[in-house]
Amino acid sequence: MIAKYGRILTGISAVTLLSLGVSGCSSEKQGVAEPGPSPSVSSSEKTIPSSVVPVSASIDPCELISAADLADIGKFESEYREGGAARSCYWGHSFENGGDGFGFGVSVRDAQTIESVNDNGGGLQSADINQRPAVSTEDPNSGDCTFAMKIDDLSRVDVTVTGEDGCEIAEVIAGLVEPRLPDIP
């Protein structure tokens, strides 16, 4: 499936890298551009009774995308992190592996729903990813974008891409993630 969008992602990731360079982001050390903490994350979490376990609790964000999904556009390294009320996995197409520095993140939020997504400045857009309810939000200045997909009434999964054309790429990646999510109860 990603083969269909491989050229789009490769072209867009080059634009993303260029936009990072033009915006004055520089460093002596080469590495991978990673999405930072998503500004689309609401600081409010639902209080979940200890007897209720959200469906999302069993989801490992690093298992939501495979190396085979990304093979057509290059070799990506993944890194698991916890923080900001999420369990996240960041994938990077590193310079060291001949990549262009493109990166994206997938975050599982056990106590935040698609209704709690904050507007990044470009409004909240209702969407469906493979018939799963979702919300997207884009920063009109940077192009950073988050697609948040419903897991259940308590939780969601976010796909975050930084840089120009972020929503186009995030929607493609969300389409890869969605089939690996449990059915909505």
Q: What is the beta-strand fraction?
A: 15-25%
Over all CA atoms, what is the radius of gyration? 16 Å
Taken from the alpha-carbon principal axes, the silhouette is globular
Count up the helices. Answer: 3
Sheet with most strands: strand arrangement: 1-2-3-7-6-5-4
Biggest pleated sheet: 7 strands, antiparallel
Mean pLDDT score, rounded?
78
Task: Please provide a written account of the structure.
- There is one protein chain.
- The chain has about 180 residues and is α+β, with helices and mostly antiparallel strands.
- About 20% of the residues lie in helices and about 25% in strands.
- The chain contains three helices and seven strands.
- The protein has helices spanning about 1-20, 65-70, 165-175; strands at about 75-85, 85-90, 105-110, 125-130, 130-140, 145-150, 155-160.
- The protein has a seven-stranded antiparallel beta sheet with strand order 1-2-3-7-6-5-4.
- Strand 1 (about 75-85) and strand 2 (about 85-90) form a beta hairpin.
- Helix 1 runs antiparallel to helix 3.
- The chain is globular, with a radius of gyration of 16 Å.
- Residues about 1-35 and about 35-45 have low confidence and may be disordered.
